[in-house]
Design a protein that fits this description.
The chain has 12 helices and 4 strands, in the order αααβαβααβαβααααα. The protein has 318 residues and is α+β, with helices and mostly antiparallel strands. Strands 2-3-1-4 form a 4-stranded antiparallel β-sheet.
């Protein structure tokens, strides 16, 4: 169709307020679709940011646990018939104190050792007939490296029924927990990005269809693909940043309020478990930096996706 006929078809009387509303732009500034897209981006950003905050809490808690557990070891002395358990415990304590790198040694009495079993066996149970082992807690000096093989050899040689636990099993569990949390967070963030890309792609196609005559006229008069795509890219970058800022701000508020709210459950069983898993419910400075980076990334993904969809659509028109 000749260009003049296209322009004649597109002519319409100017309406008051068109310029104020920005109707002269290729992409409408205020529309239901644009507001819906901003809401979707806000929700996606909120979910990603809250997940990132939770991962940061778990990683921080796991790191703190690892550093504490790595500095502690436990000697168990089991009762042996015909041997004085108190003498064996005293000998094990002496060996531990003489070991290079040990900062502190604490020996648990029989009553204290029995209380450690109460969470599993329940209170009020008589353990006089059971061979409850005696516990000796060892704390290493900061930065010290203990030769556990030498300590184990000394204990097995001089103390009957003694064994050394260096808590490697707990450290491995903490590492696996942190790795699982990171993997889960990355998976959720990947799903959020995928959902955002799909939502932006549909919104871009909808915006192009609603303004198809304008896009086709620009295409006929020789406007380059990059120029047309830039109009959509700028608009969708604004929408992505707006939605990302709303979602990220809501997530930051949620993470900030998580600490005071968690204090209300201190002393309860659920509060103790949550505190053990997430620590002090503080994501730290790095967590907030990651949330800000996610807002920027989602806004950038929104803009790039709209640009690629426009260029692909224009190429098909050719």
């Amino acid at each position: 169709m000749p260009l003049l006929k296209w322009l004649e078809r597109l002519r319409r009387p100017a309406r008051p307020g068109d310029q104020a509303r920005g109707d002269g732009n290729i992409v409408p500034r205020d529309s239901i679709a644009a507001n819906a897209l901003a809401a979707v981006v806000a929700i996606m950003t909120f979910l990603a940011a809250v997940t990132t905050g939770g991962v940061a809490m778990v990683i921080g808690s796991a790191t703190e646990w690892q550093s504490e557990i790595a500095r502690e070891m436990t000697i168990q002395v089991r009762p042996i018939p015909g041997r004085d358990i108190n003498a064996e415990v005293a000998r094990a304590e002496q060996i531990a104190r003489a070991t290079r790198g040990v900062e502190d040694v604490r020996t648990y009495s029989r009553k204290e050792s029995e209380r450690l079993l109460e969470p599993w066996l329940g209170p009020g149970l008589s353990l006089d007939e059971l061979p409850v082992p005696r516990m000796i807690a060892i704390r290493l000096a900061s930065g010290a490296v203990l030769d556990t093989a030498v300590l184990r050899q000394a204990l097995s040689r001089d103390v009957a029924g003694a064994s050394l636990d260096d808590h490697r099993g707990w450290i491995d569990r903490m590492r696996r927990m942190a790795t699982t949390a990171i993997a889960g967070g990355l998976m959720v963030f990947g799903l959020v990005l995928a959902a955002t890309i799909l939502a932006v792609a549909f919104a871009t196609r909808g915006a192009m269809e609603s303004n198809r005559p304008i896009v086709e006229v620009l295409h006929i008069v020789g406007a380059k693909h990059a120029y047309i795509a830039a109009q959509f890219q700028r608009r969708f970058l604004t929408l992505g940043f707006k939605g990302g800022a709303i979602g990220g701000g809501a997530a930051v508020l949620f993470l900030v309020l998580a600490g005071p709210v968690s204090d209300l459950f201190v002393g309860t069983a659920g509060g103790a478990e949550a505190s053990a898993l997430f620590g002090s419910f503080s994501v730290g400075l790095m967590g907030y930096v990651m949330v800000a980076a996610e807002v920027m990334l989602i806004a950038l993904v929104t803009a790039v996706t709209s640009r690629q969809v426009v260029i692909h659509t224009l190429t098909r028109i050719d």
